[in-house]
Amino acid sequence: MTTTAEPTTTGEIGKARVRKEDQRLITGRSRYTDSITPPGTVHIAVVRSTIARATITSIDKSEAERAPGVFGVYTAADLGAEEVGMPCAWPVTPDQKAPQRPVLAVGRVNFSGEGVAVVVARSAAAARDAAELVEVDYEPLDPVLDMEAAAQDGAELVHPDLGTNVSATWVFDSAAAGTGADVAEAITAAEADSDSVVVRRRFRQQRLIPAFMEPRSCVVDPTGEQLTIWAATQVPHILRTMTTVTLGVPESKLRVIAPDVGGGFGGKIGVLPEEMLCVLLAQKLGKPVKWTETRSECMLTAHHARDQIQDLVMTAKSDGTITGFDVHLYADMGAYLGLVGPGVPILGAFMFNAIYKIPALRFTCSNVFTNKTLTDAYRGAGRPEATFAIERMMDELAVELGRDPMELREQNWISHEEFPFTTVVGLTYDTGNYEQATQRAMELFDYAGLRREQEERRRSGDPVQLGIGISTFTEMCGLAPSRVLGSLDYGAGGWEAAGIRMLATGKVEVTTGASAHGQGHETAFSQIVADKLGVAFEDVEILHGDTQVAPKGLDTYGSRSLVVGGVAIVNAADKVIAKATKIAAHLLEASEDDIEFEGGRFTVRGTDKGKAIQEIAFAAFMAHDYPEGMEPSLDSDAVFDPENFSYPHGTHLAAIEVDTDTGRVTLRKYVCVDDIGTVINPLIVEGQVHGGLAQGIAQALFEEANYDDQGTLVNATFVDYTIPSAADLPSFTTETVSTPATSNPLGVKGVGEAGTIASTPAILNGVLDAVRHLGVDEIEMPTTSQRVWRALQVAKGRSPQQTPSDTHAPGGGLGSVDPHSGEPNNPKGEVQ
C-alpha cells in the first residue's frame, strides 16, 4: 500500500488534484517535437563514427548523394563550421582544459557515435538509409577508457594538444575555507589514537544512461530573418542564448519552443550538435529542417551520467563520533565537456557531510577525459553520488564499531533543536527534523520486527537471508542563488521569472520560465495562483516553454521549478493584488489602508462593501474610472532569486532478501518518509517520489552502460540495457512530514530528485547487510545476482566458475541465458 500524508485544506494548496496535463497526454492529444513538420520540411540523419578514437583519412559521399530523395551530404567543412564549438557553461577552475567539441568531427573522432557527416533528404527514412552509404575511412588509435589510468602522468592522451587528460582538479578544504577543522590532522590524530578508528573505502558509481521516454528531436523553421526552433529540451531559454553564443544568430531573431517533452531527468539539459546542425542547414537551405534520433542513437550519444571512482576516508572516535571525512573523486567527463558536466561532481561536494555534524571535510575531484560519450547532469546531479558515499560510509563505520547503523546516524546527525545549522562546508540548513521523519519511517517499516526476523534467519541458516538498508539524506536543491552559483563560476544565474495577466473576463494567464517536461507544472502552479488570487483552479492557465510567450527564464532542472519558479509566481501575484487594492479603494471610496483582501474579494474593513477580483480586473480593462496616475492594468511580472538553497530530507528503509544459493536479490519492502516542506499537491509528490525511487533503485540493481575494450557501447538498446518496469519493483510505502522552509514564502523545499538521491544507498546497504555476516563486505553496482553469487563464492574461499560476460542486466546467477535480460540465469534456472 502507498500512503501519502495529505494536509487538511480548504484551499487548493495541499489538495490532491489530478493533473491538468494528463487529459492530452494520456489521450494522445499531446504535441511532441517529432509531431511538428512545417510545410517543405527536409530531414537529416547523422553519419556516426563506429570507432572510439581514430583519425579520419577520407569521407566518400558520392553514393549517398545519388540515393533517392537525398538533397545533400555535408561535412563540417561543407557547412563552414570547422571552427564552431559546442558551449560549456561551467568552467570549474580558471585553468580548466576544455577541448572544442565540434558539431561534426574535424580530422578525428573521439568517441563511438560522434557525428562525422550529415545527410539531408526528403524523409527521415531516406536520410537514415543514405547515411549508411557514406563511406568513412579511419586510421584507428588506441582508445583511452580507464579514467584512473588516464589521469596518471604518461597516459595516452585523448586530446594531445591539451597535454593532459585531467580537465580540472577542484578542491574544497574546510580548514582552508575557515568553515571547519583540518582533515589531514584528523586522520593523523585518529591513526595515532587507540581510541579512534579510520575507515578507508573505494566505491564505484557506474556509468548510467538517462533513457528518457522521448528521444531527442529538433525542428528549425527559417521565416524571413526569424528562426523558430522546436526542441525536446528542458532548457528553451538557455538553448536560445547558447545558439546565439555558438552560431552568432542574434538572440532577438530566435524563438525557441519546447512543446510537450517526454521526460528529461537532466538528459535534455544540454545544447546539442544536432540542434546547431539544424540551424546551420535551415539557414543554408532556406527550408525547415528536422532531426529525430533513433532510440539506439539516443543511448549511444545522448549524454551519460554518474561514472565516478570515490576514494573515501572517515575518522571517528570509538564511541561513534565522526571527526573527519576525506573525499577524493575521479569523474569521467567522456571525450568532451557537456554544458554543465564539469560542475556536476562539484554540486555533490557540498553534500558529502549530509545531515551530520562532521567537523572536518576535504573534497578533491579530478575531472578526466576518456574516449567515451560525454557525461552531464542526471536526476540529482552530484547529490546522489555524495549521498551514496556518506550513507555507505555510515554503514561501514557502524560495522567497524559493532553499532546499530541507525543509532550511529542519530548520534551524529543535526538535531531539530539546532536549526538553523551552518555545516562544515558553509551552507546554512534553515529547517529540518530528522528525528520525526526517521521515527515515522521506522514505524511504517517495522524496523524492530524486521531486525528480529533477520536474527532468526541467521540463526537458522536460512538460505534466503534478510538485509535492512538505511539512507537518511538531505540535499541542496532549487539551483540558486545566483551569487552562490557565480562564486562557483557557473555560467548563468539561478533566478526565475513569472508573469500574471488578468484578463478582462476575470480569467488568469500565468507565464513562467520554468519549462515542464512531465512534472505537472500546469497543475501545481494553477493551485498556487488559485489560492493566492482567490480564483477558480479551472480559471488559471499556465503558459510555458516558449521564449516568445514567456521571454525570460532559466528553465527546469535541479528541483528548482517550485522553490524558485513557484515563488516568482507568488511574487507576481502579490503585485497583482497590490495594484488591484488601489483600484478597489478608488471604486469603493475608501482608503487603501482600509481595504482587506481574502478569498478573491476586496472589502472595506468593518463593512460588507466589497468587490471580487474579477470585477476589479474588468474595471481595469474598461479604464473608465481608475485612480489618477495609475496605468489601467493589473498585469504584473516578477523575478525571484532566492538567498539560499532549500534542503529537503528524509529517511528511506529497504528490506532486501538475498538467496545465498543463487545470488538472487529481491526487494521485499520499501518505506520512505520525506520532508519536502509545504506540499502543494500530494498526488504529484507521490508520483515524483515513485519515479525517483525507480531510478535510484535501478542504479543499485539493474543499470550500467558497458563499453568493450575498443570503446564500443555494447548495450545501446533496451534489449541489453535494462530499466525497471512496474513488475520489477514492489509497491512503495511513502509519507511526507513537513518542516516548512523559511527561505521562501511558500515554505516549499523541492521533491523531484529526492527519491533518486536517497534510494541507491538504501538498496546497496540492504544487500550487504544481508550477506555481510557471510564474509561479503563489498559488491559493485549494479548488484546483479551474478555479482552477488560471485562475491559469496569468494567469501567461502571458492573460485567462481567461468561464466559468460556479465551484462549487468537483472537476472539469475549462472547457467542458461535469460532471453529477457541477456544475462545468464542461476544454476536453479530461477530469474529475478
TrEMBL record:
<keyword id="KW-0500">Molybdenum</keyword>
<dbReference type="InterPro" id="IPR037165">
    <property type="entry name" value="AldOxase/xan_DH_Mopterin-bd_sf"/>
</dbReference>
<dbReference type="InterPro" id="IPR000674">
    <property type="entry name" value="Ald_Oxase/Xan_DH_a/b"/>
</dbReference>
<dbReference type="InterPro" id="IPR016208">
    <property type="entry name" value="Ald_Oxase/xanthine_DH-like"/>
</dbReference>
<dbReference type="Pfam" id="PF20256">
    <property type="entry name" value="MoCoBD_2"/>
</dbReference>
<protein>
    <submittedName>
        <fullName>Xanthine dehydrogenase family protein molybdopterin-binding subunit</fullName>
    </submittedName>
</protein>
<feature type="domain" description="Aldehyde oxidase/xanthine dehydrogenase a/b hammerhead">
    <location>
        <begin position="27"/>
        <end position="142"/>
    </location>
</feature>
<dbReference type="InterPro" id="IPR008274">
    <property type="entry name" value="AldOxase/xan_DH_MoCoBD1"/>
</dbReference>
<dbReference type="InterPro" id="IPR046867">
    <property type="entry name" value="AldOxase/xan_DH_MoCoBD2"/>
</dbReference>
<feature type="region of interest" description="Disordered">
    <location>
        <begin position="794"/>
        <end position="832"/>
    </location>
</feature>
<dbReference type="Pfam" id="PF01315">
    <property type="entry name" value="Ald_Xan_dh_C"/>
</dbReference>
<dbReference type="InterPro" id="IPR036856">
    <property type="entry name" value="Ald_Oxase/Xan_DH_a/b_sf"/>
</dbReference>
<keyword id="KW-0560">Oxidoreductase</keyword>
<dbReference type="Pfam" id="PF02738">
    <property type="entry name" value="MoCoBD_1"/>
</dbReference>
